[in-house]
Design goal:
The longest helix is centred in the first third of the chain and has 12 residues. The model has no long low-confidence stretch (mean pLDDT 93). Helix 5 packs parallel to helix 6. The strands form 2 sheets. The protein has a 6-stranded mixed beta sheet, covered by helices on one side. By secondary structure, it is of the alpha/beta class. The site of flavin-adenine dinucleotide has 31 residues, from helix 1 and strand 2.
Amino acid sequence: MNERWDCIIVGGGAAGLSAALVLGRARKRTLLIDGEEQSNRPAHGIGGLLGHDGRPPAELYAAGRIELAAYPSVDGREGRVVGAAQGEGGFAVTMADGSVELTRRMILATGMDYRYPDLPGVAERWGRSVFHCPFCHGWEVRDRPLGVLDADPVTGTHRALLLTGWSADVTLLTNGPAALAGDAVRELFV
Ligand SMILES: Cc1cc2nc3c(=O)[nH]c(=O)nc-3n(C[C@H](O)[C@H](O)[C@H](O)COP(=O)(O)OP(=O)(O)OC[C@H]3O[C@@H](n4cnc5c(N)ncnc54)[C@H](O)[C@@H]3O)c2cc1C
């Protein structure tokens, strides 16, 4: 435990790095702690981020860290935060290695918990040919046969129709006996 930081940022993805940049420019003593597991790392490229369209995610994070190096009040550390306790004047933040840092403020930029279906082959294809978001990756697979895996008749129909913007060859996979009926079938085959 050395000094009291103005801010500890937990998470060094796009959100955490951006926050660190702004705080560094404001000359705030900032510690960025990151587990290096940004959610989009498996993807070949970032889709739809202005100025970085198609750029490999790891490149963006490396560039972000280079930019941050220009700001002496910002420090970075690899590791996981496992706890934080509020006390007088701020927080005591505990890392997995047992070290504790004090800070006046915290920013939680820990990202989202993406869960893909527990099906053989999905884990190794996640972010490469199995995607969660057509706006991020639909362009790269445009005009190719696409499958939508969704057992819910309402969201499945919606997603299948949405994907027809990227490909005319879309198959809705209901993962079992036909979950589709009535309106859903009519919508899909109009
Ligand atoms: C496979 C995939 C591809 C994607 N592609 C795109 C795309 O092309 N375009 C787009 O706009 N969006 C895309 N997204 C969504 C995109 O990842 C997010 O919108 C954005 O990058 C999230 O940034 P973030 O900083 O909030 O979180 P993340 O990038 O997930 O970063 C969170 C960071 O916090 C760290 N962390 C979490 N808990 C702790 C802890 N306790 N201690 C220390 N560190 C911790 C993690 O290790 C991680 O490094 C994609 C998502 C996925 C899953």
